[in-house]
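Per reviewer request, we include the raw input and output of the structure prediction for the construct analysed in the revised manuscript.
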Amino acid sequence: MANPLLDNVNINSIIPLATPASLREQIPSSPVATAQVQEGRQTIQRILDGDDPRILAIVGPCSIHNLDAATEYAKRLRALADEIRDTVYVVMRVYFEKPRTVLGWKGLINDPYLNDTFRIEDGLRLARRFLITIAELGLPAATEILDTLTPQYIGDLISWTAIGARTAEAQTHREIASGLSTPVGFKNGTDGSFDACVNGIASALGQHHFLGVTDDGLPAIFATAGNPYAHVVLRGGRDPNFDAEHVAECERRLKAAHLPQNIVIDCSHANSHKKPEEQGVVLQNILEQIEHGNTSIRGIMLESFLDWGNQKIPKDLRELKPGLSVTDACIDWATTDTLLREMHARLIPVLKDRKSSGT
């Protein structure tokens, strides 16, 4: 029995949670959704291998807080993705967990009602249902893993995973990445250094043993095979790092570590100084690098929602605007549409030249 003087001294409550198996049984993936997730993973793998010349575009809200607005966004993104599919492979950014170094809203899974009630099981259910919805629309989903148990509940519906700048150095997240079924992008450190992401990739490629929970909720030792599709995500640091000089330095670091030179560049976060209007400037620079012959840049990321900017979570939740980010400021849909169409147009001759030259 637990000793009240020694155990759980600072724990206010323990609430049992549905097991991953039971939650997936209650909210099962459909055959259409399952096929879309698989297609998404395989396509991203081919892009990272260089077998698919298209550029990956991971696009969507900084965080999901209103599912109706996010569904509307997904429908628009799906229609656009069809139009530019010859050059750009679109994946929707679907982030349910938000890192907090102090306090703040931690995302839809942790606090789905945005009122500090922390109904986490409700959050997991909402997340699963939404991921099935967008998969059935025909969109692959990308997310960031923070809580180490979350992949057990929603991982079967994800096509690309990020390890954030604050967790890329963590042994736990590197071990989990080595066992994930998706390609996984490691972001550089918040200071802009490459150590965290390069070492994270090297670690994720290897085999690991760690403690986890089975689908039936039992503690177990997991042995991983290693993830061959770990890669870098440049997100800036003290200064932006999207330019050709920083990309070349990242390539050198990867080559020195005998790692694949696969780079995704985040147009947001520190690369845009968290100013949405600068995301387009970053994308222009990336496209120029690709036009000038860079082949290590495999993808880009944009933070985008229906409306421009962001908002604080008000005490009266009725004042929340559904299509406006409650975390980082985003570009609006019109700007997203313009940027992705321009990206498509500029990539047409690039991919044609690569095809003709066999590169």
